[in-house]
Amino acid sequence: MASKLGKFYGIGVGVGDPENITVKATKRLHEVDVIVLPEAKSGEGSTAFNIVKEYVKPEVEQLFLEFPMIKDVEARKVFRKNNADVISAELEKGKNVAFLTIGDPMTYSTYTYVLEHISDDVEVETIAGITSFNSIAARLNIPLMIGDEDLKVVSVNRKTDVYKEIENNQNLVLMKISRDFEKIKKAIIETGNKENIVIVSNCGKENEEIITDIENVESVHYFSTLILKK
């Protein structure tokens, strides 16, 4: 008789403040057998685990898996598939496994790539987390949308037309802005929106930085989000 498969959880842990984790997430974290801790580079450590460590039982198994930020798309796919196989092996042992993700599991998250390779026979539960822009808006009392207003969220890359995004949107969130910060800075200033933005780096962490004067900033941390509200 085949052994019962473990359950797979995708748990959003927010962006820094341990008190912003949902009650459901804290309960599941205390119940699981294995916690998957994604790393961009082996040995780098896990920001997600630092957020949730007070909610985890001491005997939980920590499984560090490397998801390198490399340009080769096919190589990234191989890493994702191999890591999903490692997770699947734990599930086949009947272990309940939680994949931790910064912010929300369904918003620009590595978890979604792994989920593609998990067997349909495995029960999956995804637990929402607070995104960086939701957290920033709440901390600074910035309404993201009012009345009939719209909001657009953009993950900045080299192809992003920042000028067009600014022109076409009243409320705009730019994520992953460290990739091409000079381009973003130039567009914000030249479109006359330097008074309409705020940037928060490492939101909710001890080294949090709030930036409103973009003209005097040369670069930003990887964990930085910009909100523009005209």
UniProtKB/TrEMBL annotation:
Q: In which pathway does it act?
A: Cofactor biosynthesis; adenosylcobalamin biosynthesis
Source superkingdom: Bacteria
Any one GO biological process: cobalamin biosynthetic process
Tetrapyrrole methylase domain boundaries: 7-213
Pfam families listed in its UniProt record: TP_methylase (PF00590)
TM ranges are none
Q: Which GO molecular-function terms appear in the entry?
A: precorrin-2 C20-methyltransferase activity
Q: Which UniProt keywords are listed?
A: Cobalamin biosynthesis, Methyltransferase, S-adenosyl-L-methionine, Transferase
Q: Record's PANTHER family?
A: COBALT-PRECORRIN-2 C(20)-METHYLTRANSFERASE
Concerning its family, UniProt says: Belongs to the precorrin methyltransferase family.
Name of the protein: Precorrin-2 C20-methyltransferase
Origin organism of this chain? Leptotrichia buccalis (strain ATCC 14201 / DSM 1135 / JCM 12969 / NCTC 10249 / C-1013-b)
